[in-house]
Sequence to fold (343 residues):
Amino acid sequence: MAPVRSISWENNRLRILDQTLLPSKIVYLEIDRVSDLAEAIVHLRVRGAPAIGVAAAFGVVLAALRSSAENMPEFKQHLRHAANLLASTRPTAVNLFWALDRMDGVVDAYPGASIRELAALLEKEAAAILEEDRNVCGRIGEHGAPLLRDGFSVLTHCNAGALATAGIGTALAVIYKAVQSGKTIKVFADETRPLLQGARLTAWELGQAGIDVTVLCDSAAAVILQQKKADCVLVGADRIAPNGDTANKIGTYGLAILAGRHDVPFYVAAPSSTIDFSIQSGREIPIEQRDFREISSGFGVQTVPDGAGIYNPAFDVTPHNLISAFITENGIQRPPFKKKNNP
Ligand code: MRU
Fold:
């Protein structure tokens, strides 16, 4: 079965699968206001670095289409306001800022365009970003698939699949392509505390695609690696520094240490747009801190006594020397990354 389609642009609205309700409910939201989209990003209704980028690009289109501005300065101010709102939603995934920059570039590139023309050009650019993401996902999958041998078991963390992109995912694209080429692949999915993207999303998405998946609590990953039950670890990324330091879902760093300790290859799959050439190392990556209630009363059940402190970073940074290789749409790469090799 083909991987699920989680984000699309239909009838001047952004259609997203509400990921907060998975796996028990499949509900698509039709978003036509930037403020609703910002809410959806903050609450992870749409999530995953590439999908957030695509969503933000269409957020600018929504602002353009719904604008009642009567002159260009007002229109541009309206767009700027929307872009600022979207940029304030989540700080770590660079794809959000990358997509907003591309949309900004369109405004700068057509100084003589009318409001109508600019709105159409912005829609065209957002559609291109979505199409490129689909294409890039496929290429990541094709480049990465040869790393997985027939019969391999792969340990993954969070969700870097179709739900996190406009295409077939990044880390999971590698698995989909390997399976498509006739290999039997088994997946271990960390449940991924506190929001359970592994248990709720990766297991659901792989199940839909007919791929063998086993969910484990995050703390069981050490045993899986110690007992060599997984042949490699394969994860996505939210932001990669040119030196290879990589931000991804909280818990990724621990997994990388475990993989290194047990001599299991640790791969990161991501589009080249996830590389942030404006920084030098992972120390400069902003880490999102999320609401304490995700830990103290996740999914509506209180599990931490009142008064206890809560620490809830959404991401961590894995140092480059713990990463065996990067799988991008441009091939298997190792840092330092150069802009000319990742246009
Ligand atoms: O907080 P989330 O669910 O948006 O975090 C997502 C991840 O950490 C993914 O691994 C990453 O964005 C890569 S998605 C292709």
About this structure: The first strand starts at residue 7 and ends at 10. The chain has a mean pLDDT of 97.
